[in-house]
Amino acid sequence: MSKDHRVVVTGMGVISSVGNDVKTFWESLVAGKCGIDFIEEFNTDNLPVRFAGKVKDFHPEEYGMDKPFIRKQDLFTLYGMAAAYQAMSDCGLVAEGEDANIDPFRLGVYVGSGIGGFEVQYRETAKMIEDPSGRWISPLFIPTMISNVATGQIAIKYHAQGPCLDPVTACATSTNAIGEAYRAIKHGYADAIIAGGCENATIPLGIAGFANAKALSQASDPKYASLPFNANRAGFVMGDGAAVIILEEYEHAKARGANIYAEMVGYGNTCDAYHVTAPRPDGTTQARCIQIALEEGSFDPATDRLYINAHGTGTKLNDVTETKAYKVALGDYAYKARISSTKSMTGHMFGAAGAAEAIVTIQTLRCGIVPPTINLDTPDPECDLDYTPNKAVRDDITIGISDSFGFGGHDACVAFRRA
Q1: Residue 305 φ then ψ, to 5°
Q2: Burial class (CB in 10 A: 0-12, 13-18, 19+), 188
Q3: Which of 104, 70, 67, 62 is nearest to 86 (CA)?
Q4: Which pTM does this prediction carry?
Q5: What is the pLDDT of residues 298-347, one digit of tens each?
Q6: Which among 31, 216, 245, 378 has most CB atoms closer than 10 A?
Q7: Nearest-5° angle of CA 308, CA 415, CA 26?
Q8: Of 164, 252, 289, 348, which one is the catalytic site residue?
Q9: Phi and psi (nearest 5°) for 263?
Q10: Longest dimension (CA), the chain
């Protein structure tokens, strides 16, 4: 297992506030469409925040799930299953039966969730408070709530008997999932891995918790609430959904004639080791994470055109620190890089954010279009890089990275090149 293997992307799937398939998702982002709106799924009259990037028009039965299964699962699992269904249908990998084209012990699943079955926890806890005997607690509570259940259900569905992990690193979860999957394939432990993340955290308890931590925007207009790198920013906007990509060993993909979207070429993983919620102010640990991914991807500032899908949450601390990190990591080239935060349109998808933004990065490389950071009408003077304000631009991008920084100080960055 000493030989390093090349790793490519052969399938993609997404569930989000701006589209429930990759084509719609991408076209919405390029058009600057905002998926953030007032919440209709539950009563928000007494809550401090009444809007989010909620998933719309989601019908799980369209993604290979039957009604008994749907009825028993938390939405985070259904979102993850739907994104995996799209990605597996797209890539054409089959691990069982006459049409099998991969050894099931060489097919893995690395799909993470930052919180897991939050809605189930909320509902069952309410029952326990009402009746401390616990007699009305669902027998499915634990296997529906634990964050690794989406990973396990995806593995069951696709007979993936190889390495199976559920990384939990808050906002960096699915970036770490993709990065660790990349390393597993690169170093010979799998031929393909279903990698990404899923989340359904926008419930009353989640809103109250983040709002009371002073993390959420409390703007009056949901369409002008997620404001990355804007001087008017006042917190992030919650979002839900899932995103999955199929990473596959290059020779394995080539042998079966798979469609290759991009090559994954780098992964950085560091820790701020500074504070539970605040980023390290000088940006050095975040910068090192970015540098590791770019160095592994053989980034050459003399010849490469770099796109960065920023973490870009729209909080006061993150955006300034992230700007510093780019300058530390890239030096003068930071002013030449194309950068955007698609959270301005999707909201912050937590455990699914990194994978969704990896898909954006891959699509940017494929299409030569950089999606915008919408609502960037008043740039913060401390965020003085090219954050692609308001409208998409065309550019011949040769290498793209997506970075994620999570509570706990988790820093993750993944790098891709055109196929």
Answers
A1: -110, 115
A2: middle
A3: 62
A4: 0.97
A5: 999 999 999 999 999 999 999 999 999 999 999 999 999 999 999 999 99
A6: 245
A7: 60
A8: 348
A9: -110, 130
A10: 68
Give the tens place of pLDDT for each residue, 355-374.
999 999 999 999 999 999 99
User: Both tokens of residue 354?
Assistant: 């990194």
Unique residue bearing structure tokens 């494929």 = 366
Tell me, yes or no, if 311 is annotated catalytic.
yes
Q: Strand pairing partners for 7?
A: 249, 264
Among the listed residues 252, 311, 383, 413, the single catalytic one is: 311
360 three-state secondary structure: helix
- Tell me the average pLDDT of the chain: 97
Bridge partners (DSSP) listed for residue 404? 412
Residues 152, 154, 156, 159: is their CA dihedral positive or negative?
A: negative
Distances (CA, A) of 233 to 29, 53, 184, 365, 391: 20, 17, 39, 29, 19
- CA 267, CA 280: separation in Å to the nearest integer? 20
- How is residue 28 written in tokens? 């919405």
Determine the pLDDT at residue 3: 83
Residue 252 annotated to the active site: no
- Which residue out of 164, 171, 289, 383 is catalytically annotated? 171
User: Would the pLDDT of 1 be above 80?
Assistant: no
